[in-house]
Amino acid sequence: MPARRTAAWYEGTSRDTYIHTAWMRRGLPDDAFTGKPMIAICNTASEISPCNAHLTQVSAAVKQGIWAAGGVPLDMPVISLGETQMRPTAMLFRNLAAMAAEELIRANPIDGVVLLGGCDKTVPSLIMGAASVNLPAIMLNGGPMLTGTFRGHPLGCGTDVWRWSEEARAGKVTNEEFAASQQAMIRSAGHCNTMGTASTMGIMAEALGMTLPGSAGVPAPDARLLKFAHATGQRIVEMVEEDLKPSDILKREAFLNAIVALATVGGSTNAVPHLLAIAGRVGADLKLTDFDEHGSHLPLLANLQPAGTYLMEDLFRAGGLLAALNQVRDLLSDEAITVSGKPLSAHLDGAEIFDTDVIHTRDNPVQKEAGIAVLHGNLAPTGAIIKPAAASPELLQHRGRAVVFENIEDLHARIDDPDLDIDETCIIVLRGAGPKGYPGMPEVSNTPLPTKLLEKGVRDMVRVCDGRMSGTAYGTVVLHVSPEAAAGGPLGKVRNGDYIVLDVPGRRLYVDMPDDDLNAREVLPETEATFARPARGYERLYIDHVTQADTGADLDFLVGSSGSAVGRESH
Ligand code: FES
Ligand code: MG
């Protein structure tokens, strides 16, 4: 048996060993301290992170698996981030959660970790933290919720909120109907049931190789999730024996597999900064343009909201992620191994599609070209992204007059002003929503449209923003413009009446004026005044150190790994 990391705490007869063992004992059997792998379950269960509230039940099944395989399970609550509840945005705290998870794993007597996440930011933060320690680690996603229905219609979490709220503003449904649908929206335990960020990141974790193959997308209340939980617990014990670490799994090829999966399922744009940030932790060579080069020409096969019709429960009954990936098997790299020790493609045999309206076959895709398009130009020198599958085809090449809003409050205050000089050909520019500017890069980019245009039947316009968009949202929205306005990006210099050109086929985004003239402009004081200026605390640390979206919006000093070396003795 190889020497365990935890032997540094528990082996021998010193006073320090006495302290570590005596305080931990609390009913653990004697042999827990004599070489059995100690496995921490990084548990993001929290009642104020409701998508993850059921994870303690999942953790119980993981524990049984760890005991069964000869390990010692230890539940370790970590920072949990509830997407819908946190202000100004859960994204502000992703790096804090990652840093806390990293330090907890490193500081404690632990040989391996199980990562339990679900809601949007919990999955990337746990993988980021675990990757920077690089002890054997396996992820299990808490799974999507079951489909709720309202008056016979299935409700997609998020997507139907965006859709119904615009219909209510347009007078197509009553405000009472809109409000009543709220009771049916969240039907069960689990995370959002659309192909939003939570579902996407569950799938990214599996495509990266960090989960047991086949586990992504198992609905939270489904008994099979607990079976996967048990198997996850068993597997981490073996992974400790094999010394199979995140750095063995998270190679460039794993990220390219994730990009293929992202396109195939029509995943969220939020996967882009999350994958870039994870890659940064392990030093994998991944660039923003890789998402376009390796993903944008791929077919969309999963017919799920927001790009399509169905919901996660349907994906699961139709065969799940592995059935979708089996259609693009030739595009997956065998170079990357998963937590199973084998490549992802080794798990695709027999992965059948049971409903070809939910998972389309390769020869009959939902859309021919999905994925993420990366745009450059004088408005986005280091890049911006758009998800063409969620956009209006006729707007993908568009030149329009800019109507500029300094921040989201300015937009809310003026968007419905009957005197606002705007029509459907204009381009709505929203700035001050980047990592530094807000702070935290909130999901405000899919701005509401002017009511006077909604009433005319307009349902989409080009929008350009340095913030993010909910993975459940749709529209011709250019996101993550980098550098952001608050970091000196040219987005801060656009003025009302400028003409902006969006050319998705040409991968261009620019103000229709000479670059030098745009760059020579001063940022107006009223623009400058809206940028966040926190004086203290985590927000201060964050805006001083956050990197731009095109490199993952991590904190600059968290990029890379500090490893799992055991720290100095505490007494
Ligand atoms: Fe938690 Fe959507 S709000 S997953
Ligand atoms: Mg979100």
Automatic annotation (TrEMBL):
Any one GO MF annotation of this record: dihydroxy-acid dehydratase activity
Record flagged with keyword Transcription: no
Pfam entry (one): ILV_EDD_C
EC number of the protein: 4.2.1.9
Domain of life: Bacteria
InterPro entries linked: Dihydro-acid_dehy_C, ILV_EDD_C, ILV_EDD_N, IlvD/EDD_N, Sugar_Degrad_Dehydratases
Domain Dihydroxy-acid/6-phosphogluconate dehydratase C-terminal: 357-553
Residue ranges of every copy of the Dihydroxy-acid/6-phosphogluconate dehydratase N-terminal domain listed in the record: 36-345
Enzyme class label: lyase
Keyword vocabulary terms for this entry: 2Fe-2S, Amino-acid biosynthesis, Branched-chain amino acid biosynthesis, Iron, Iron-sulfur, Lyase, Metal-binding
NCBIfam families: PRK06131.1, PRK13017.1
Family from the record: Belongs to the IlvD/Edd family.
Protein name: Dihydroxy-acid dehydratase
